């Protein structure tokens, strides 16, 4: 096995200097604007379309523990539904009876 050596009289190339650690802080992405829609009568799946025009069709599920930032927009203790895929929010249909506390015995 032959070892490779640099010819005498030349110096090996200096390693490149690393970029400074605190060059520019990475900014956090701004929070995505939440879409809030009104459910149609008897609607059970999401009708939102993506950029390509494809229908989401995710199941609308009742959302009980929404964040405090959202509570300021929709109100405290509001009945709200959220799509399981695209996370679009839906308010209940104003023509239907609310589902909160309907099954009390």
Can you describe this structure?
With 105 residues, the chain is low in regular secondary structure. The chain has one helix and four strands, in the order E-E-H-E-E. It has one helix spanning 68-74; strands spanning 36-38, 60-62, 81-83, 89-91. The protein has a four-stranded mixed sheet, with no helix packed on it. A hairpin with a 5-residue loop joins strand 3 and strand 4 (89-91). It is elongated.
Number of helices: 1
- Mean pLDDT across every amino acid position: 79
Query: Quick one: biggest sheet?
Result: 4 strands, mixed
- End-to-end Cα distance, whole Å, is 89 Å
Topology:
Elements: E1 36-38, E2 60-62, H1 68-74, E3 81-83, E4 89-91
Parallel strand pairs: 1-4
Antiparallel strand pairs: 2-3, 3-4
Spell out the key features of this protein.
105 residues; little secondary structure; 4 strands; single chain; four-stranded mixed beta sheet
